[in-house]
UniProtKB/TrEMBL annotation:
Gene3D superfamilies associated with the record: Metalloproteases ('zincins'), catalytic domain (3.40.390.30)
Keyword annotations from UniProtKB, A to Z: Cytoplasm, Endonuclease, Hydrolase, Metal-binding, Nuclease, Ribosome biogenesis, rRNA processing, Zinc
PROSITE patterns the record matches: UPF0054 (PS01306)
Cofactor(s) named in the record: Zn(2+)
Coiled-coil boundaries: none
Protein name (database record): Endoribonuclease YbeY
Role played: Single strand-specific metallo-endoribonuclease involved in late-stage 70S ribosome quality control and in maturation of the 3' terminus of the 16S rRNA.
EC number per UniProt: 3.1.-.-
Organism name: Tepidiphilus baoligensis
Subcellular location: Cytoplasm
PANTHER family given in the database record: ENDORIBONUCLEASE YBEY, CHLOROPLASTIC
Cofactor binding summary note: Binds 1 zinc ion.
Length: 149
């Protein structure tokens, strides 16, 4: 049985999805077990600082995932940080509804928290298949439909 404790943090002025939607998306992406997850919506300055500090990249990115190193019996613990201005810009550039892009990035981040990655083609294919499945169950279109492999 999945049990989830969600901390919803909005520290930006941009449009962000409501807590109920975020809870639904996080829960849908949770593979199994218990989880404590914080989802934080930030502005460009905080997004850039976190990306620089933890990934060595001096720009704001759409989503960052931070998993806590805790004993397995404690369940999954982690943070997702979404840079709202970057997410808005990307959704507009890609011609996607903002909610669909947020749902995709939250599902993507949740999979990272659970150990999935996309460092090589095989990992990317597995992770993208899971994202498509979860998003499809949530009623969202395939986020990779326009990409060529």
């Amino acid at each position: 049985m999945k049990r989830l404790r969600l901390s919803y943090q909005r520290v930006c002025s941009a449009e962000v999805p409501p807590r109920a939607a975020v809870l639904r998306w996080v829960r849908a992406a949770l593979q199994k077990g218990e989880a404590q997850v914080a989802v934080r919506f930030v502005d460009t300055e905080e997004g850039r600082e976190l990306n620089r500090r933890f990934r060595g990249k001096d720009y704001a990115t759409n989503v960052l995932s931070f998993v806590y190193d805790v004993p397995e019996e404690a369940g999954l613990m982690g943070d997702l940080v979404l840079c709202a201005p970057v997410v808005e810009r990307e959704a507009a550039e890609q011609g996607k509804p903002l909610a669909a892009h947020y749902a995709h990035l939250i599902v993507h981040g949740m999979l990272h928290l659970q150990g999935y990655d996309h460092e090589d083609d095989s990992q990317a294919a597995e992770m993208e298949a899971l994202e498509r499945d979860v998003l499809g169950r949530l009623g969202f279109p395939d986020p990779y439909v326009d990409e060529e492999r």
